[in-house]
Specification:
- This protein is α/β, with parallel strands linked by helices.
- It has three domains: about 260 residues, inorganic pyrophosphatase (n-terminal core); about 110 residues, Roll (Diaminopimelate Epimerase, Chain A, domain 1); about 110 residues, OB fold (Dihydrolipoamide Acetyltransferase, E2P).
- The chain is about 40% helix and about 20% strand.
- It is built from 16 helices and 17 strands.
- Helix 8 crosses helix 9 and helix 12 packs across helix 13.
- The longest helix has about 30 residues.
- The protein starts with 5 loop residues before the first strand and ends with a strand.
Length: about 525
């Protein structure tokens, strides 16, 4: 292992600057949406359907990206104005995406999907039989066999020449709508949707480089001054002068996600599309309650899941009868954090297992699952996250098979990308460091907030905090000769005084705003 360097501010600036080879893109430099394969034809078709008064139904997805895509579409059609029926499938009753179950309640001439559909072979067949035209917009990795739809717009299609492929479902929908706007010569400003678009990009863990970085930067600014009721509620709730990508990732996205996880994603859609702050506030309150319930359910199930883990596996595969289907994705993430390897968590009911997979480092969980699709009834996703279904009787065989596949993966690919950048001196942890770090935001996938190492620091004091005393505030002295102490917050950790009164941990430097007062906060990543 390379020795970990001690960094001063200039060295840290140079290190972070290396992450971006190109100059930052402007909004005007976003590649032309017409470069998306089939997007111009799909836009023409949608425009023609609007001109000839056809019945249009939109089918979204129940995660943040799917709800955001649907909300942008709903708002756009509202401004034309044109009636659009928007359906977000219910995870428990309908399953994922445009499915035969969803089609039972659709009466339309044209169906448009957002953030789903690339694997909807059966649904496409039904649409054909019923004479419904189907336009699929998605960003997930296609299989060899594609649905027989009128048009498929997905940057991951082999023949698609869109220069930046790592975009989420909401971006695909937004780019397509830009072409529809052109077709119909509408005076709709596409920048007004950047607040919702930024939330989708962050929540769907898209790499925050290239155009994604630009869109998120602009979108976060818009949340701070948009007149959209949902954005007003978000900025009131966060109560900060500057909203960061981490505020969205840790405080807003889980709330929006909780609706589809535990009840119905329509609650989140109504929040995004609310036309007054009163309605938006009511939905946000409801999302907060669902998120609290999600946390409880997740904590209980995580305890059970940890007991099922086989320590020798390269890919964790655990399952449980009656585990809540809506939280398996989060539990998979927790297991990845705890055991440092990809994880698949399955909920079993009536002999059927449904679950979610999360990855680590450079391991493509999608490719590992695809190699063993003969044991599955369905699967879909991308490199870092996927969904899958199989018969419960095949779980053991699948676990063995995917671990066999994982043995062929380069061991280096399993190394988490979130390694520490270096060691800081306590004297350098100040407001100047905060503004240096802020200049490299937004942080997220492919531009992680730097993590620093604190080695053998003296523990001065520990305070437990939170209603259930489940978080620790640890006061430390980096070197025994120093007077200055540092305070590290370790969330979801009850830290007890070590015998030698020493701690080695990694941490991130963040800005804390409370009652208008700004302070530097150190957030513990991992205690070694």
């Amino acid at each position: 292992m390379k020795p970990i360097p001690t960094l001063n501010k200039q060295e840290l600036f140079a290190l972070l600057s290396q992450r971006f080879s190109d100059e930052e893109k402007k909004l005007s430099q976003i590649p032309n949406p017409a470069l998306l394969l089939h997007a111009p034809q799909a836009a023409k078709k949608i425009a023609e359907a609007i001109r000839t008064n056809k019945k249009i139904t939109l089918v979204g997805d129940y995660d943040v990206d799917g709800v955001s895509s649907t909300a942008i579409m709903v708002d756009f059609f509202r401004q034309i104005p044109y009636p659009l029926e928007a359906i977000i499938p219910n995870r428990f009753r309908d399953g994922y995406g445009v499915s035969p179950t969803v089609l039972e309640r659709v009466d339309a001439d044209l169906i448009i999907t957002v953030d789903n559909g690339i694997s909807a072979i059966e649904a496409a067949k039904i649409c054909k039989e019923r004479g419904i035209e189907l336009i699929i917009t998605d960003h997930h990795t296609p299989s060899k066999i594609l649905p027989d739809a009128l048009f498929i717009v997905d940057p991951k299609l082999d023949d698609c020449d869109y220069p930046f492929k790592e975009i989420c479902g909401a971006q695909v929908a937004w780019l397509l709508l830009a072409l529809v706007k052109k077709e119909l010569a509408l005076a709709i400003d596409m920048r007004q949707f950047l607040d919702i678009l930024a939330i989708a990009i962050i929540a769907d863990i898209m790499p925050l480089i290239d155009i994604n970085r630009t869109l998120v930067k602009e979108g976060l600014k818009l949340i701070s001054n948009s007149s959209r009721p949902s954005s007003i509620i978000i900025r009131d709730f966060l109560n900060k002068s500057t909203i960061t990508s981490e505020d969205i990732a840790f405080q807003i996205a889980p709330r929006i996600n909780s609706a589809g996880r535990l009840e119905d994603a329509s609650i989140a859609l109504e929040f995004f599309t609310a036309q007054d702050t009163n309605s938006a506030y009511k939905q946000f309150e409801l999302l907060g309650k669902l998120n609290d319930l999600r946390k409880e359910t997740e904590a209980e199930t995580t305890k059970k899941a940890v007991l099922e883990v086989n320590e020798d596996d390269l890919v964790t595969v655990v399952s449980g009868e009656g585990w809540h289907e809506g939280v398996v994705g989060i539990i998979a993430s927790r297991l990845v954090d705890k055991f440092g390897r990809p994880a698949i968590v399955l909920s079993v009911e009536n002999g059927v297992a449904k679950g979610s997979a999360r990855s680590i480092g450079d391991v493509s969980i999608y490719e590992l699952i695809k190699e063993n699709e003969h044991l599955l009834t369905k699967f879909g996703g991308h490199k870092m996250a996927a969904g899958l279904g199989l018969k419960a009787e095949n779980i053991t065989a699948f676990r063995e098979a995917i671990n066999k596949s994982a043995k062929r993966v380069d061991p280096k690919d399993f190394i988490p990308k979130e390694s520490v950048s270096g060691i800081l001196n306590a004297e350098d942890i100040d407001y100047e460091l905060l503004s240096l770090l802020e200049s490299f935001e937004p942080y997220g996938e492919a531009n992680l907030r730097p993590s620093f190492l604190l080695e053998n620091a003296e523990v001065v004091n520990i305070k437990l905090m939170g209603a259930d005393k489940s978080h620790s505030r640890i006061e430390v002295r980096q070197f025994s000769h120093q007077r200055k102490t540092l305070e590290i917050i370790a969330f979801r950790t009850v830290f007890e005084m070590p015998e030698d009164r020493k701690i080695t941990c990694s941490y991130k430097v963040a800005k804390n705003e409370f009652n208008g007062k700004v302070s530097v906060q150190l957030l513990c990543d991992k205690i070694y």
